[in-house]
Here is the input.
Amino acid sequence: MTFASLAARNLLRNKVRTLLTILGVAVAVVTFLLLRTVISAWTGAAEFAAKDRVVSRHKVTFIMSLPKRYVDTIRSQPDVKQATYANWFGGRSPGNEREFFATLAVEPKTYFEVYDELTFTEGSLAAFVEDKSGAVVGDVLARKFGWKLGDQVVLESGIFPNPVDRTWSFTVRGIYTTTSRTADRSTFFFHWSYLNDGAPQIVRDEVGWVVSRTKDPSRTADVGVAIDRTFDSEDTQTLSQDEASFNTSFLAGFSVILSAIDLVSGVILLIMMLVLGNTIAMGVRERTSEYGAMRAIGFLPKHIAGFVVIEAMVLSALGGVVGLGLSVPIVEKGLGGWLEQNMGGMFPFFRIPPVMAVAAVFLSLALGLLASALPAWQASKIRVTEALRRVV
Amino acid sequence: MTALIELRQIVKEFTRGGETLRVLENLDLDVERGSFEALMGPSGSGKSTLLNLMAGLDRPTGGSIAVDGKRVDRMSEGELAYWRANSVGFVFQSYNLLPVLTAVENVELPLLLSPVHATERRKRAEVALKVVGLTDRMSHYPRMLSGGQEQRVSIARAIVADPLLIVADEPTGDLDRRSADEILTLLETLNSEMGKTIVMVTHDPAAAARAKLTRHLDKGRLRATEASAREPHGA
Ligand SMILES: Nc1ncnc2c1ncn2[C@@H]1O[C@H](COP(=O)(O)OP(=O)(O)OP(=O)(O)O)[C@@H](O)[C@H]1O
Ligand SMILES: [Mg+2]
Here is the structure.
């Protein structure tokens, strides 16, 4: 028997209470990690953004489009390596209207040069470029709908109803994937010209936005400014942002929610500390006479305080580890998998940040220490003679 | 040789809610080495208070306490704890064993405070349990033991560090007659064969009769010291 084993033994005294407390800490840790993962998945889009990409869109609003000729103007800028463009198609699969996925009409040759983090797992870029009604889909989306190369896919769009029969049909020519943390693996890409040819006259030859890749990543912001200046005297002016600021400004709209989540994740830890503190304090109160006897035998106040602290730390460490163990299946596999499939646009990469996983365990240890501080202090301050009188 | 315990002009007051209660009043007491004394008196007379003072659990309001020549009343809290660990064995009315430890682990407990190696600790605890006749209950938890057995474990715990003095506050208070007799016989043996000095508080005249000497405490004073006519019992 040693001091540590003596402290740990107390955990076995009331097994149900110990178990519930560990579970309580574990649930807090899972919740904490879930919230932190939401924040990191969300803000990750800005953090992991490509440094050399500039997105130019209509100065007034996202929804309004730009004349197609702007693409050539932008391509002729000296610092622009390549530029491509896309339209938001707003496609839905008839019969599966509730399943959301992004559908973009793109310039097939250049789009995958600008977004070179997207790689073809099946089919090829050449096959896609050759087939005007061809499409490229993300691997997650393909798996969800069971699409294979050569499959016919029919989509409807509220924005671009096909003048003939309202629907558009495509042939799957490629399936892409990515290791990038910011790219969605559930997007449906097809030829911009296919859309343009079938679109009503008034929306022809318009592009939703232009994305450029710069020659020098450190000058990306300046390139954006230069692009906007080019169109200063035009009727339609542009607003260009590098990808990181674009993502950040998109996130800014959610900043209140993000800070709320941030706050709640802290509150969760605080609650966990109070739960733990309460358990420890209860144990200390029940053991007053035992501590009295130990003090009589010669144990010092610091020993008693040590027992209380060790007990709390063991509890919180166990809770932290159990919580972490539960977080991987619950947060990453369960919820994360679902989010990546169904809300990939918002959460393309929903994984527990490793730093947070480590932090959660250390935080629970630190909070265990904090939670035990007051009970430990009280236990060490008991007066031996009075504690012994409380016997019976 | 001087007495093992020398109390001189001991005053002990408790203050509670602004009122001061004087429990012990200029009390003098010598406890000889190797004696087995019983301390009797009405409830609230201060028996436990007096015992706690000799055992270094509490400090007097006035007067001096020396045990084996050491001024216990002048020791710091830390020194007192160290001294108690080495010099005093405690036996409580309700045993005060730790429920999460087995009998032998409970007995080992005081040795955690001394620089004794783990295997040696266990060996000494086993010897102490042998002395109290519980060799076959070593790995039992307190809840599996009878009251008498629990008290024997606690006596083993009191002697394991080989103290000069054993203090017992109503050690038979919670026990039936038979178990009480066994405990008293054990205390007698520790006194007569191992030479331990024992001071025992009791309400039970039959228990007091097993001691070599009985003192009566009343109204803050030791009313009488009886070497008593019961001397033959002790022998
Ligand atoms: N910590 C304390 N604070 C205040 N009063 C105390 C304290 N300890 C003891 N007393 C008082 O001192 C007096 C003596 O108490 P003590 O416990 O020594 O009596 P006792 O003779 O052991 O009684 P009993 O036979 O009931 O155990 C009692 O009146 C008690 O209320
Ligand atoms: Mg008493």
